[in-house]
Write a structure and sequence with these properties.
By secondary structure, the protein is α+β, with helices and mostly antiparallel strands. It has one helix at residues 38-52, and strands at residues 2-4, 17-20. It has two domains: 1-28, no CATH class; 31-63, no CATH class. The protein has a two-stranded antiparallel ribbon. One of its GO terms (biological process) is mitochondrial translation.
Length: 63
């Protein structure tokens, strides 16, 4: 969703968008990895977590 400099969502002439925000519900999946080894995926999770500053959890789905 786009947000304006006033901190409001767009609509009703509030100004031009400053940045975008993503709405993710609790227990939602932010990143899904495929085609990489588990070692590489586990190494990538702390890097991603340091950039978005949220609690994360690694879940392995074996088919």
């Amino acid at each position: 969703k786009p947000q304006t400099s006033m901190g409001l969502f767009l609509g009703s002439g509030k100004g031009s968008p400053e940045y975008w925000v993503a709405v993710v519900k609790p227990s939602g999946i932010l990143y899904e990895m495929g085609g990489v080894s588990e070692t590489v995926a586990r190494a990538a999770i702390p890097i991603v977590a340091s950039k978005i500053h949220i609690r994360n959890q690694f879940i392995l789905l074996e088919i």
